[in-house]
Amino acid sequence: MAYQIKKITVVIAVSQVLTRLGIKTFLSVIGIEPEYKELAHLDELDSVIPAGAKSYLIIEQSLLVKPESEYLKNISRKYGKSKILIIGNRVIENCPCSHFVLNSDNRQEILEKFQDFFSERDDTSTVNGAEDILSDRETEVLKEVARGLANKEIADKLYISINTVITHRKNITEKLGVKTVSALTVYALMNKLITPEEAIK
């Protein structure tokens, strides 16, 4: 899948220099050539993100103050035009961001997640006016779930790993507040993401 990449500002808030270097190497592999701002602590964010500016924030989970979700909501409100990706051991419940790179991810999964994070259309867009927010990739996964595809079939169709599909499905159910396939299908139909004919295949 082709992604449109543009010149951007990437803020890497990670404690270890070697990890920051690794992140920059991954971004170089997928063609990202941004202006980098590197931080070892999140209390330095104000010094690198001008008011009203859009940045791509890559944040190490261990730097977050607990409760993590509330802390991230404050960051999201303060830097509302920015996108946030968390690197850590687990997905954070009720997180205002939808992008996670897990320490257990393999090389391919990390590349896919960075590509998704930096794709041209950002995840602040809504699904056909729906109140809840889905990223473009989450919307693609939702459509295939509503069409009745299994995780393996979705992974093969979208050229992503099964683990990535599972992560997207988890994010979708948390954002929409529904857990069953039938409820997700109804949501997709009501928002005209699929046709009734696709839902009954």
Describe this structure in words.
This protein is α/β, with parallel strands linked by helices. The chain is built from nine helices and five strands, in the order βαβαβαββαααααα. A five-stranded parallel beta sheet has the order 2-1-3-4-5, covered by helices on one side. It is globular. The N terminus is likely disordered.
Uncertain parts: 1-6, 121-131
Order of helices and strands: EHEHEHEEHHHHHH
Instruction: Record the strand order, biggest sheet.
Output: 2-1-3-4-5
Number of helices: 9
Largest sheet: 5 strands, parallel
Distance between the termini: 26 Å
Give the integer mean of the pLDDT values: 81
The percent range for helix content is: 40-55%
Shape assignment: globular
Computed structural class? alpha/beta
Strand content: 5-15%
How many strands? Answer: 5
Rg (CA only): 17 Å
Summarize the model shown:
With 201 residues, the chain is of the alpha/beta class. Helix content is 44%, strand content 12%.
